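Please go through this protein, sequence plus structure tokens, and consider how the sequence yields the tokens. Keep your notes short.
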Amino acid sequence: MAKKYDRAAEDMANIVGLEHVNFTVPDQRLAILFYITGMGFTRDPYLVTGVENMWVNIGRSQFHLPIGEPQVLRGRVGLLTPNLGDLARSLKAVSGDLKGTRFAFSRKKAHIDVTCPWGNQLRCHQPDDRFGAIKLGMPYVEFDVPSGTADAIARFYRQIFDATTGVEKIAGARAARISVGYHQDLIFRESKTPIPDYDGHHFQVYVSNFSGPHAKLLERGLITQESNQHQYRFRDIVDPDSGEKVYEIEHEIRSMTHPIYGRALVNRNPAQTNNAFASGYDERPWAEPYSA
């Protein structure tokens, strides 16, 4: 008998990729120490190479870090890194240079929780079956949202974006999970604590049906920026049934015809050093080789 496959596991909905999360930082030197030296990620060598902004590659995703007053995501960014032991050692190595900032990290059994110098929370996982073949990347962004909003948020993405959504319990709290790419999710987890005011940070996704969501957002008066032919933005997540605003976070929406879509990102191997150099080991793969 032929092997049976779970064909539905390979389905993709309208949102096909989470490319970047953007927050402003006041100091590029500290950002380099943290994201490049400490976290072991890679500064994009080709685009945005000045001192006013920095693009940081993590597999096929990025952080964008323009200069400005520090912005803090209300929740955490989930990251995959190939070796938690190596990560802990590199974070310890930069801890002295980051003294006096909000930088901290804590090693758990299955992950490392890291706080960036300005307070953003990162949870770093070692690759496992939950993340498919991905070894290096951004599998989720988790937002703290007010109690009672998870169902409305799931409806919003399902009705406006034709996204795959669900509502589940995460650590005892109800949460909307929105599929935004291959083993990538937005998670909106209800919290009983007050949610801080929104400070302008944003994330960016690619969609296959670009005009359909735009028309629905425009009809509701939610479009905040008509960026160019390939991109638009909006900020408010509303209950599509009542029109009530339930959460604010800027979305940068790009089409699959955007010139940058599918651009290959360089990912260096942080274990490669000039004092322990091995030819052919400069790059770090973002995924395991495919196996049938």
The chain has a mean pLDDT of 95.
